[in-house]
Amino acid sequence: MREMINMVVVLTLLSAFSGGLLAAVRTGTKDQIEQQILKFQKAPAIKQILSDVSNDPLQDRFKIIDNEQELTFFVGKHDGKADAITFETSGKGFSGDIGLMVGINIESDEIIGVCVTTHSETPGLGSKAKDDPKFASQFAGMTMDKNLAIKKNGGEIDIISGATITSAGVSLAAQKAQEIYIRLKPEIQKQTAQMAK
Amino acid sequence: MAQSMVKEFTKGLWAELPPFRLVLGLCPVLAVTKSVENGIGMGVATTFVLVCSNLLVSLLRNIIPVKVRIACFIVIIATFVTVVELVMQAYTYPLFLKLGIFIPLIVVNCIVLGRAEAFAFKNSPTLSIADGLGMGIGFTLSLGALGAIRECLGNGTILGNTVFGPGFQPFTFMVEAPGAFVCLGLMLCLMNLIGKK
User: Fold this and answer.
1) pLDDT exceeds 70 at position A2
2) Sign of the C-alpha dihedral, residues A37, A41, A44, A46?
3) A–B interface: beta-carbon pairs under 8 A
């Protein structure tokens, strides 16, 4: 009996110590990790989508709280006019969430382009969603009333062969982006108008 | 005391060199040694985990009940691996991306558990640190060497610097998975040849 209690106590204490240490490290590195993801994952995606803007979208950004979730919008300016925004959504992929940066022109309500940011899909198959520009380019020019589901689900998007679930995940993220954009449009317009000043 | 510390330290560098002598921990050895940078990064991460887990296991060796020791080891190792993962994500993000899944997989690297069970659980903290450090450095050097051979032949570079002239035709086989096996086999063969004398 004594031995059993001993085992339970030691394991509990050890786990508690482990939990405490991890919580401390996590808190300590959180901001730094966020910055790194911004620098290495989001920045290239944003640059790719807003390649012809005259400002630095990483600087001109604002946040909107949507359903208790904080969304960051990056604003792109053409000829001094703030008419493009990008923000990140996510969809369930084959292994974990796929992050998708979506750029939208707020005057024509058209998608400028999309770009996969963070993912953990199978290299060579699902990873093509990020590496093969052909797939992502299908989203460019789509308006908010277009169905961005994959063709099998009644939409307009061709899948990457061998990576149906990944393709569905990306298209889900794009659909979420449409939804968010339509819902938050007044707020987005207000904030971008302020950016333009 | 000092003598035995030196002994424990140096055995990891040659007599019990983990990947080539003990033939342990081959999963990361085969998977991440596509380049020197990856190999050394992986090695340093493993060394950190090895030293920390060895130290803690050794300190707690009289408290941990024998029946649940493996569970305790795994909790300790997993904690340090997660710490490494977070720190790498925060400060060496590109390397973190390249090593990907193999960082969390250090938890199941049999060198780490093996040293905890076979050495740290029976020896004093100072000796355990020496053992962990020796094994870790041996592991790092092995990975670095393997990475150097594969990167050099398969890509014509070492640490990103071109080694051969422009006429060099990369032997891409070496950076692919089968190349890892062939290269490891040849290294083992070489080690045995030298060790035989």
Assistant:
1) yes
2) negative
3) 56
